[in-house]
Amino acid sequence: MRVYVVFSSHSESTTRIARSIASSVMWSNEYEARQAAEVNPGEIHGPGVIFLGYPSGGPELDRAIRSFLDRLPERTMYNVLWAVFDTRREPEPAVAGSAVRRLRRAIEHRGGRLLVHPESFYVGLNEGVVPHRELERARAWGASAIASAVRAFRDTSVQSGFLSGGSSRPEWAAAVVAVPS
Fold first, then answer.
1. N or C: the chain end with fewer CB closer than 10 Å?
2. Is pTM beyond 0.85 here?
3. Which of 75, 83, 60 is nearest to 6 (CA)?
4. Are 1 and 153 in contact (CB under 8 A)?
């Protein structure tokens, strides 16, 4: 089973949350969260989990996320389970600006299935400032989702998925670790 973390944001806060989620695959010490615009969806293989997120706000699905989903091969959509997240500056979700709601609908509309309940992370009012408890909560949520995927796929080997992006060297390690059932 492979694990991927894909996000869209120009915000250091959302990047920090995505990297914290990716750190739940940290046994290789070479984890990475990649911007959706930099990812070639053809590199994603199942069975696996894709964590997908972006900041809340605005009336539409993020352009880079929409493009990523539109370019994802249909077979991949059915071979992976999804975990969606967003970041927000306010601790309470705003009804009109919920990114997780738009992500869930976009994934389900394309035939994908959510693995766990979507999650929102509070990133604070100042750019780049993320409360430590939110980083820890993101890591714990990622680990919990991976454990759920292990049960769903009945696959105890977990490896970080390779997303080359613009890099010439792998950003994700190919380490395989057996997770206790």
1. C
2. no
3. 83
4. yes
